[in-house]
Amino acid sequence: MMSFPQTRFFMNKSLMVILVIAAAFCLIVVAGCTNASAPATCPAVPATVPASQTWPAVSINATPVKYAEVNGVKLGYREFGSGEPVLLVPGFGSTMDLAWNETFIAILASKYHVYTYDHRGMGYSSDNTATPTISLYAEDAAGLMKALGYDSMHVYGESMGSSVSQQLVIDHPERVRKLVLDSVTYSIRVPETQLLFSIINESATDPTQTAGVREEAQANLAWNGTWDKLSGIDKDVMLVVGTDDVLTPEPVTVRMAGQINGSWLVRFKGLPHIGSRYAPLQYGENALNFLGMDESPLNT
Tell me: the pLDDT tens digits for 138-158? Predict the structure, then answer.
């Protein structure tokens, strides 16, 4: 199905928010935030979809896993492409084997050095006895940047990864260049995220889940959120949401855009939670546009 993006501009508390509405591929009845090992799953989605432009070939499984010692654990990661660094922060219950669509990665890797990784206790990453918290996952992201030889990176977080990314930019603003928050909420305890809270609450004590998933759930439940600190974020930020997202619904994202001065708000019509799995071409090109945009042309 072809897409017909529309862009509208409006002012809210002296900020300009860019609204991009892309036509839907299809309506997804079941929206999920995790891979097959987690409690809520998305229907199977092809790793690669046809694109209108030729992008460099990317194979997740064929790309070797490397390791970095960070905060007392060993984090598994992969890297693609070259250029300025972009760190992709995965969502709840997800691993880098399944979290990211290959077309989406290929588009980013056409211009950037893209890194994917697993949170501690997930996938290829080890764990220790530290109490799991969103702040600890953010510390791991900051530590990974340092271990890879960077003072800072662009950051793209999806779902729980967007919570970790918020905490990262609040706790370590010097580590973040530009920030993308995809399928995002500032707290899992707001009325609109009751379904998400229910999934995470059940996962925290579910013996059928892995220890890593239970720890991520416990960290989410203990998280106090970021609402009071959103207005202090002084970075170029883009928030992305699918209008059919039932886990982190659109009104939450719109509310956050009103708190982050100068942020971009991009809404994809008819897409569910983590829409990059369903429209990787549009999500990838949208990210390229944001990352490459000079937002202060008169100062250069």
Answer: 999 999 999 999 999 999 999
